[in-house]
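Ticket #4471: structure output looks truncated?

Reporter: J.K.
Steps to reproduce: submitted the chain below (394 residues) through the standard prediction queue, then opened the result file.
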Amino acid sequence: MSRLFMFEKPLGMRDTLPDLYERKQHVRAAVESEMKRWGYRFILTPTLEYYETIGEASAILDQQLFKLLDKEGHTLVLRPDMTAPIARVAASKLLKEDLPLRLGYCASVFRSQQREGGRPAEFEQIGAECIGDKTVSADGEMIALSIASLKEAGLENFQLSVGHSAFVKELFVHILGTEERARGLMKYLYEKNYVGYREHVKSLPLSSIDTQRLLSFLELRGGQEVLEKAHSLIELGQGKEAIGDLEELWGILVDYGEEERIFFDLTLVSHMSYYTGIVFEIYAGQVGFPIGSGGRYDGLLRKFGKITGATGFAIRLDSLLEALGERGESGQPACILFSPERRKEACGLAASRRKQGEWVVLQDISGVSNLDACTKQFSDTVFLVGKAGREKRT
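Returned output as attached by the reporter:
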């Protein structure tokens, strides 16, 4: 083995050490339990998928996909997200009845990084998908469920930014004339480059009225009042319908009692190109980027031969842990140190305490070279030492 790579990992890959693993497990279990209480059944898809299906259906850039060949020469990819694989499963196996599917998942996804920059190439997502429901009620359920899940994980200080992809697209295409020009302008919004957005708008050959409309668009951020302002910028078509969706959504979230956490941001644009309707991002505490996101993706299932509505969300576990700080950390196990002649007694005591739900380490004292360091790492230490072990204990 080359000494250069003895302790190195591939770009963007991370080790999860015991303390972090236990914290993840604690938070994961809390969120899964909450989703199950809302009627969501969990699903797991393969880590490897065909490039021609999931690779092309996913909204992840091609250069971010991990690709490899199977022995028949087919191109495979490590799953870059969970929404596209779940859409595949739903369309092929689950959508047999005219009933909405409520599916949950917790799995790692893989996206290649071109440079380190602290960005992981493998990270764990936990999320939910509601497939087969075109109503705004389903969008409201996704937002309410994401809020309830974060609360159950112990997070208190967070807010959701909510927008509508159809509103942005309709407004930009109406003013700029083509979808290509609209995508060029939306790129500034995705990057949160509002200075660049303003400069680009001012450089466009538009009437003063249309230029002002595009500049005023950046002001559509705030409470329920921004929906009234949005009506003055759009005329007919999907843009008006989008505002109607958001107004209906507001009423739904009031019924859930979660309106205080909602911040409307009609400039919100997701990098996931399959979103077709209401979209949202979750921000928490001092974390400077979204810890989760979601939205409606009615067009995605068409790629798998089904025409139906769908909406969902995903939370990044590592980002959620960062937002939680030290909260949600699991306790340390206890330790029973024994000498060989008292092994049976030690095994019985350990079994008894484990049945009561405790974490217990059983350790032969002859295998410990530094007793002081050993006892410090446990919440409680019990010594069961006979005559043969007394010298070692001292």
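Triage note (M.O.): checked the attachment and the full token line is present. The two ends are 42 Å apart (CA to CA).
Status: closed, working as intended.
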